[in-house]
Design a protein that fits this description.
mainly alpha; Serine Threonine Protein Phosphatase 5, Tetratricopeptide repeat
């Protein structure tokens, strides 16, 4: 066996460890390769992926940049760097990397997909749709691309086309749990709760460790008034992923509807601890605090929701209601007016103004 054959076989072994989730073994393998083959670009790139998976984006970025310095012809390395930059909140730089990847390998569908989702996130919707359709053209069995396209169509309000696209993802991969879950979300939004529940159940059957699937199932069951089953599914989601902020928030919503306000507040606080930038949780917490007569703390949470999302109409309405309850009518009127500025048809805000002026 030549020295180069040894390098290639060890890279394959490290990649196997990486793909199977054995990050420590993969890291050890790639580090040993680098000890024998200084600045081996593939080993550096794979180490970058490992550090990205561990959440150390700075080290991941440095390793992948070093890989490119050693060999800037690798399309996959540019794609890796783009994903790291995207996760780091630098979409414009990420888009440039995905374009560099495509320049080096125009038929690499993964970079077309990530370029599309990145462009969509910065508001370049037309080019995003063109790019994601290019990804599907290159790889017609790419279930992940159909799911992302469905998400974009849903966001644009093209609900029927989104449903067809999710079903296409299922057609090309009947074992794709994400496709069933996303289809369930759209169906739930359309009021088709029973069909949504069937899709969520299929998602968790295919992937029994899918925390989001259990949480989505819980939300649909809550919509049917089946609070006990809803709570069971939300607790299962949290058991599977104890750092899932949305799971705690959804559990809080179900507990609130059950009248278990104390535990609802506890779960909302946990959700905020895990994700302090999630405006909806502050609004939900504020609503429960208001029902418990804790008006000053409710006001603080509604204001926090608005600070995070200044276009949050419901938070302004809730803030107006809370101010009105403590007799702060000028502040209530101001809050209702801001709600109307965002949504002129807001009945809650209009009624609030009328109530303040009576």
């Amino acid at each position: 066996m030549t020295r180069d054959d040894s390098r290639i076989n060890r890279l394959k072994l490290g990649h196997h460890f990486l793909q199977s989730g054995h990050l420590d073994k993969a890291e050890d393998t790639f580090n040993k390769i680098l000890a024998d083959f200084k600045e081996e670009p593939n080993a550096l790139n794979y180490l970058g992926l490992i550090y990205q998976a561990k959440g150390d984006l700075h080290q991941a970025y440095e390793l992948v940049k070093k890989s490119l310095k050693s060999d800037d012809s690798n399309y996959f390395t540019y794609s890796t760097l783009g994903k790291i930059l995207l996760q780091a909140g630098k979409p414009h730089e990420a888009a440039a990397c995905f374009k560099e990847s495509i320049n080096r390998k125009p038929d690499y569908s993964d970079s077309w997909l990530f370029l599309a989702t990145t462009l969509y996130s910065i508001g370049d919707h037309q080019e995003a749709f063109e790019n994601i359709r290019k990804a599907i053209e290159l790889n017609p069995s790419y279930d992940g691309a159909y799911i992302k396209l469905g998400n974009m169509l849903k966001d644009q309000g093209s609900i029927e086309e989104a449903i067809r696209t999710y079903k296409k993802a299922i057609a090309v991969n009947p074992d794709c749990a994400d496709a069933y879950s996303n289809l369930g979300i759209v169906l739930k939004d359309q009021g088709e709760l029973e069909e949504a529940i069937q899709n969520y159940k299929k998602a968790v059957e295919l992937n029994p460790t899918y925390a989001g699937g259990y949480s989505n199932l819980g939300n649909a069951l809550k919509g049917q008034g089946k609070l006990k089953k809803a709570i069971q599914n939300h607790r299962k989601a949290i058991e599977l992923n104890p750092t899932y902020a949305g799971g705690y928030s959804n559990l809080g919503n179900a507990l609130k509807d059950q009248g278990n306000f104390e535990e609802a507040i506890e779960n909302y606080r946990k959700a905020i601890e895990l994700n302090p930038s999630y405006a909806g949780i502050y609004n939900n917490l504020g609503e429960v605090l208001k029902t418990q007569g804790m008006l000053n703390e409710a006001i603080e949470n509604f204001q926090m929701a608005i600070d995070i999302d200044p276009s949050f109409n419901s938070a302004y309405c809730n803030l107006g209601n809370a101010f009105q309850q403590i007799g702060a009518f000028p502040e209530a009127l101001d809050s209702y007016q801001k709600a109307i500025d965002i949504k002129p048809w807001s009945l809650t805000a209009s009624w609030g103004i009328s109530s303040c002026l009576d």
